[in-house]
Design a protein that fits this description.
single chain, 209 residues, mainly beta, three-stranded antiparallel β-sheet
Length: 209
């Protein structure tokens, strides 16, 4: 087999690419809310789990519940004790009427009203036994209990009242059985940062022939 050597012109073309890689900007700083923070307890009880989540939560999400990358008004704040104060979910800024979507494929396990607020819950397919379950409120459901939904499919709309936020929002929760987890662990890093990774052109490199 004959080995082809890189001619001097090729070296001159590759060198700018190497130098370009050396001066690329550093990666962005971590997000102010961690997608892998510790797990906590349910809003109405439930057991705590060790720090770092349950160790088996897959990043199955393919869409945010609202918008492309909504503003997080309040992040995950696990309580120190089972019934301690905290925030067992994430509040996402969303105007009334904003479509609410399933973050991943699953089955609607509940669609109705709880304490005067509209709630939609989805059991996520392929996430173990018991399966992971997302909750969304206040949401006016556009799906029925037992209905299968795809990732990104609209399951309802944000209601104008019933939120505990100071600004219009949707509260997004995640449970495995009766244990609440940080819902952001469902989203892969590229979705947390606003979109899939993209390859940038490197100037000075000759086009292959």
């Amino acid at each position: 087999m004959r080995v082809r050597r890189c001619p001097r012109a090729c070296v001159r073309g590759v060198l700018p690419a190497v130098l370009t890689l050396a001066v690329l900007p550093a990666p962005p700083p971590p997000l102010p809310w961690s997608p892998v923070s510790v797990a906590g307890t349910g809003d109405h009880g439930g057991g705590a789990v060790p720090a770092g989540g349950d160790g088996g939560t897959p990043a199955v999400g393919r869409a945010w519940p609202v918008g492309a990358r909504p503003r997080v008004l309040r992040g995950w704040e696990p309580p120190a004790t089972v019934y301690g104060r905290g925030h067992r979910g994430v509040d996402l800024a969303a105007a009334p009427g904003t479509p609410v979507r399933a973050v991943a494929a699953g089955r609607v396990s509940f669609a109705g009203r709880v304490a005067g607020r509209g709630v939609v819950s989805v059991e996520l397919t392929g996430t173990g036994d018991p399966p992971l379950r997302t909750t969304h409120e206040p949401v006016r459901a556009s799906v029925d209990e037992g209905e299968e939904v795809a990732a990104g499919e609209v399951i309802g709309a944000v209601e104008p009242a019933g939120s505990h936020c100071t600004a219009p929002c949707v509260h997004w929760g995640l449970l495995r059985d009766d244990v609440y987890l940080d819902p952001l662990i469902l989203l892969p890093p590229w979705l947390l940062r606003g979109g899939p990774p993209r390859l940038l052109p490197v100037l000075g490199v000759p086009v292959p022939r």
